[in-house]
Amino acid sequence: MIGVFDSGVGGLTVLKSLLKYLPDYDYVYLGDNARTPYGNKSKEEVYEYTRQAVDFLFKQGCDLIIIACNTASALALRKIQQEYLPEKYPGKKVLGVVRPMAEAIAGNKNFKRIGIIGTKATIKSKIYPKETKALKNKSKIYCQSAPLLVPLVESGRNDQKEIKETLEKYLNPLKKLTIDLLVLGCTHYPYLEKQICQIMGKGCKIYNSGEIVAKSLKDYVKRHPELRITRHPKPKLEFYTTGGVGAFKLVGDRFLGKKIEHIQRIKL
Fold it and tell me: How many domains, the chain?
């Protein structure tokens, strides 16, 4: 069983791609909607929330967990992998979304000027410049925090004028730099990808984490048979939230592209 965790509904953009590229596996999704957004939280808070989510998902029977949250991947993943798992869950695996994205960036030498948008915490961590540099990528990278986007998406508001004005506030500085690739460094942002493309124009390629992470995980599962993640003719799909079930379903249906059934509310 594969667990998918996010601070809210954003990780559903990753789950949607996982269901497309790895459809025969059992999935459990957990959104910590009650404490979203993570982007304005301290590193210590993000780690503790992520640790609690990892505990919950492993108790549900997961063998592998995808932290489908850039902020948690940037601030908590390494400590989870290096300290918490060896002590508490030896043999289990927790992966993030930043590394696959960095590999996709580094793997294309055509991009010379790259823009990254993300939460305050993700941008402050400088995780994308660090990861891409570690992969010998020499492109110029420009980072822009976009703190209002996650609350806007989580709220479910669909005021196109408000969305456009908010996006322009964050994207125009990058557009003026004539970037040729924009990385959506938050799993909530693909929900606004159509509007983002309209603002950035045809000359700018957009990378979001859903498809990239799904393809990376497909390869990872093949290379790690010891995890014993098996296919099923009738795979299970479970949803949990720490927030309101109604609010999760309202926005979650749009993110996943289909109706979500049997959402359970929990407290971490």
Answer: 2
